[in-house]
Amino acid sequence: MKQQSKARAHTNIALIKYWGKRDNKLFLPMNSSLSLTLDAFYSETSVELSDSFEADSFILNDQPQNSQETAKISHFLDLFRQTAGIKTAAKVVSQNFVPTAAGLASSASAFAALGAAMNHATGLNLDLAELSTYVRRGSGSATRSVYGGFVEWQMGTTSADSLAVEIDDASWDIGMITVAVNTNKKTLSSRDGMKLTVETSAFYPAWLESAAKDLVSIKEAIHKQDFQQLGEITESNGMKMHGTMLGATPPFSYWEALTVEVLTKIREIRRQGWQCYFTMDAGPNVKILCRYSDAEAIQKLLTTAFPDNPVIISKVGSGVKLI
């Protein structure tokens, strides 16, 4: 057997956050979430299956990965191999066009691309909804990178129905700006941060209740194309998620001093009349939801304030595809 496939997937930024697992093996979330897929950041991954390979290999950003990282990929590939009834070893080559492990959702695009390539290489040809349940096992947020636009990850009750659903193509002048505060690898991974929050934060039960209400409200805003409501819910939900971390034992935060300066600047820009709302994932980098038609003007204001930090505009991204 010899088969090869290559796929591209874009990152997504959660507007209603996923923060915490109820099943660490199946990656089942504690709450449903909703995201926006971004065009500017993506991963391209190829999978080659061959009987001539003695074992799996994994090359990331032109660098062969160690046995520990390769084992993680092998475990993920096994999900597809078991369903396909094969044991063929694979060569995986991936390129992330987004900083890895810096709170910019590189794992989402990486596992979505890997899953799509493996889906095709094995001949399984799962539909996108079922594929989202597979890529979830690599990274929870990868579930949402299967689709473009606004995407809901429904928490479900089992592994089979914890999947992604496309909500809206976001073709109504939606954009996002990323201010890269620090793109180095985080000292505390998202997985470890989630676990600590779920197990110890006094604020976590209230977060779950609030997130469920926020999801209903933001879907209404999307349906009505009410940008202000969309932005206000996005900003509020993101800050509430970060608040749960301050209630953990020990308390922790992904913010840096410059993060706070950026948030203050965004509020100032908003007072000037621009519609822009911030959100953050597990990292110090700030994402700003805005009208795409306003993005260049807002980018200029941010670049002037923070000349040493990349300020990147993104339009709405598409779903995963073979290339």
UniProtKB/TrEMBL annotation:
Domain Mvd1 C-terminal residues, every copy: 179-309
Keywords assigned by UniProt, alphabetized: ATP-binding, Lipid biosynthesis, Lipid metabolism, Lyase, Nucleotide-binding
Transmembrane segments: none
Listed EC numbers: 4.1.1.33
Gene3D superfamilies reported in the protein's UniProt record: 3.30.230.10, GHMP kinase, C-terminal domain
GO cellular component: cytosol
Single annotated GO MF: diphosphomevalonate decarboxylase activity
Pfam families in the record: MDD_C, MVD-like_N
Residues in Diphosphomevalonate decarboxylase-like N-terminal domain copies: 9-164
GO annotation terms (biological process): isopentenyl diphosphate biosynthetic process, mevalonate pathway
InterPro entries: GHMP_kinase_C_sf, Mev_decarb, Mev_diP_decarb, MVD-like_N, Mvd1_C, Ribosomal_Su5_D2-typ_SF, Ribsml_uS5_D2-typ_fold_subgr
Family as reported in the entry's similarity comment: Belongs to the diphosphomevalonate decarboxylase family.
Record-linked PANTHER family: DIPHOSPHOMEVALONATE DECARBOXYLASE (PTHR10977)
Name of the molecule in the record: diphosphomevalonate decarboxylase
Provenance organism: Vagococcus allomyrinae
Lineage: Bacteria, Bacillati, Bacillota, Bacilli, Lactobacillales
UniProt gene name: mvaD
